[in-house]
Inverse folding.
């Protein structure tokens, strides 16, 4: 028996098993670690400039973290609290207007009964009033339940946020040495490893930048649309649409679809129709058109790959998938490039 071969098999088998167990232990904290890595890769050049100026490593990291908190975290906290406040106010407004809503529905059905084009349709007043009341109740209950769920999960979010920020501190300070250690252990070669790292950072940056640009456009159109329709807090809801648009082909719908339906139920017919039409025709299609172009331009990926990897990433990983999906696709393409330039050439020479 070849004991050297057996020893190698045993060693690499144990190494693989222990590595898998280690990653399984880290699994509950995968998203905080991932976002710490993404944010660190984006803000690392800023950290280097501060460190070069101050000559103090830990102080430079703290200043960078404060900058990140002001630019990213603080606006998200303010918007989240604003969303909860507006949702509760909307719930109260609809709940208090149920009798008015029922009256508007009855008036609308009465108009349909007397209209020469629709009077033969035999509308059942009681049935439709009951159905619209049930629909209103479902909408208001969903709004209230979502706000309550967000509040209840705030403790979990806070813990994950603290883990992310703690990890981010060390990724900024020790990230370069960690990366060098990984590159030393990796058998791919420094050039290929640098390529993978650049793909990771450029794709993450492009996905976030593209999402922000799309969100700003959708939020601006949505805010203007709500202002024209006379929706209270149009500016606030426009800003919330910027955040909700992070989910491709879905995010902004959660704002303008309920708004359009509520306007129709309250009797504001042309306003409700305008919101639903503009939302479906303009806001709903901007994402699918612009995201592949904006992200694909920076990552040099085909628009179809960007679209499907983004949607697939969200299905598998939730909200973080809008970055994770394109990153995995970019890494896959990088590996195929390595194969084309190195391994395929070696096989053809043999």
């Amino acid at each position: 028996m070849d004991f050297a071969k057996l020893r190698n098999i045993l060693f690499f088998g144990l190494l693989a098993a222990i590595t898998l167990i280690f990653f399984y232990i880290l699994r509950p904290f995968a998203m905080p670690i991932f976002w710490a890595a993404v944010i660190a890769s984006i803000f690392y050049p800023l950290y280097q400039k501060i460190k070069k100026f101050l000559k103090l490593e830990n102080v430079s990291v703290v200043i960078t973290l404060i900058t990140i908190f002001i630019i990213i975290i603080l606006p998200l906290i303010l918007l989240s609290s604003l969303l909860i406040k507006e949702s509760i106010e909307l719930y109260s407004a609809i709940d208090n207007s149920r009798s008015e809503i029922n009256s508007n529905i009855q008036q609308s059905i009465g108009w349909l009964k007397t209209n020469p084009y629709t009077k033969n349709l035999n509308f059942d007043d009681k049935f439709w009033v009951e159905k619209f009341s049930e629909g209103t109740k479902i909408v208001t209950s969903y709004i209230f339940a979502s706000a309550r769920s967000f509040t209840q999960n705030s403790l979990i979010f806070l813990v994950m946020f603290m883990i992310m920020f703690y990890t981010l501190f060390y990724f900024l300070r020790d990230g370069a040495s960690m990366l060098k250690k990984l590159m030393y252990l990796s058998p791919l070669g420094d050039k290929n490893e640098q390529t993978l790292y650049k793909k990771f950072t450029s794709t993450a940056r492009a996905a976030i930048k593209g999402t922000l640009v799309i969100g700003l456009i959708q939020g601006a159109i949505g805010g203007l649309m709500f202002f024209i329709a006379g929706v209270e807090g149009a500016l606030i809801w426009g800003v919330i649409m910027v955040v909700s648009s992070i989910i491709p082909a879905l995010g902004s719908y959660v704002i303008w679809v309920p708004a359009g339906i509520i306007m129709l139920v309250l009797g504001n017919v042309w306003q409700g129709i305008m919101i639903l039409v503009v939302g479906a025709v303009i806001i709903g299609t901007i994402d699918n058109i612009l995201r592949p172009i904006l992200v694909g331009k920076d990552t040099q990926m085909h628009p179809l790959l960007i679209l499907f990897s983004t949607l697939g990433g969200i299905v598998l990983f939730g909200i973080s998938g809008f970055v994770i999906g394109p990153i995995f696709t970019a890494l896959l393409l990088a590996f195929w490039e390595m194969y084309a330039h190195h391994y395929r050439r070696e096989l053809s020479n043999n």
About this structure: The mean pLDDT is 75.
